[in-house]
Amino acid sequence: MNDVDSLRTLLTPEGRALLDEVRDTDPAQELAVATRLRRTHPAELVSAALGQARLRQRAVAKFGAADAGRMFFTPNGVEQSTRANVAAYRAERFAALGVTSVADLCCGIGGDALALARAGIRVLAVDRDPLTCEAARANAEALGLAGLIEVREADVTEVDTAGYDAVFVDPARRSSRRGRIFDPEAYAPPLSWAVGAARTASRAAALKVAPGIPHEAVPEDAEAEWVSDGGDVKEAVLWFGTGAPAGAVRATLLPGPRTLPGAGLPDPEVRTPGRYLYEPDGAVIRAHLVAEVAEQVGGGLLDATIAYVTADGLRPTPYATAYEITDRLPFHVKRLKALLRERGVGTLTVKKRGSAVEPEELRRKVKPQGPNAATVFLTRVAGAPTMLIGHPVR
């Protein structure tokens, strides 16, 4: 039985009933459960159900328990699909642009297609992998969205998108041989092809790319957006047709959303450490918008090459975490150990930028003990290795 047939067996009444039965199987008990179920069910169906149960458990973090418990996944689909709240945010942007139909190219298991359909947008979901397409169809059906989603197995480069308001392309950025792909022209399909497809869209388009994409690789007529979720940078998106000026940049933080637009500010000045240190969100850093945060808090940089902002006053901003700094020391492990012992610090958070020291190595050396907590920043101040000790502002 091939993978597509295996998935189809799970869509039968027997397969669905078996999925319900193994839903909460503990991995440690899987062998015993499989042995018992094979007495009354085909061995291949039991294996498929248990495998799908494992994938659903992993998918909860991205899709939530309610949806993950009904959806169908492939191993690559769990790893590579967009988080549901990130996809929902993008769908809302499309809807706000007046988009009513989207050609979702390289749709995977349908995570973005589902979010678009939930926003009331008609979707053509295209992928060349038969198993992936089967999962996308099953997911549209499982979540009651089949009426808005057409799944088509095809080479995305050969699909006519003229009948759709917008195009969304999520090219493959991983290879079975090379792993993660960093060169946008090595994406499948290449970024240059995706940009060409985006420019043909009648209303708008969005291309999902790796958050580490070099700014010089962003087309001049695109709006570049970096998105983080709960402080973790998830993706960059190149938008077309938003009405933003050519070359516009923004950072969006989820949940929220909170969006910081680029203002084209010059690099902040380097200054001596103040009472507060601000750690910009990763999306802000990737978007090169640290200057915008520095302006908001009235601060400057600790070092010209490091994205830590320092200021004398506290000005809360959603785009950076503020820390009150209590101590500044040249990098010296014994001095840090003595200070932590004096303060009774047993919970030590180590953050670093511009330092080769590994956090776990430092923790082993200082052996923090005590009831208190502190954060140490290993960084540079005007080029000199420095330790800044403090705590987050609540």
Strand content: 25-35%
Apparent shape: globular
Number of helices: 13
Identify the strand order in the major beta sheet: 3-2-1-4-7-9-8-10-11
Largest sheet: 9 strands, mixed
Number of strands: 18
Task: Please give the alpha-carbon distance between the first and last residues.
Answer: 56 Å
Given helix and strand content, the structural type is alpha/beta
Mean pLDDT: 94
Helix content: 25-40%
What does the radius of gyration come to?
25 Å
Could you list the spans in which at least 5 consecutive residues all have pLDDT below 50? none
Describe this protein's structure.
- The protein has 394 residues and is an alpha/beta fold.
- It is 34% helix and 28% strand.
- It has 13 helices and 18 strands.
- The strands form 3 sheets. Strands 3-2-1-4-7-9-8-10-11 form a 9-stranded mixed sheet, with helices on both faces. A 7-stranded mixed sheet has the order 13-14-12-15-18-17-16.
- α8 (130-142) links the parallel β2 (122-127) and β3 (149-153).
- α1 (3-10) crosses α4 (43-68).
- The model has no long low-confidence stretch (mean pLDDT 94).
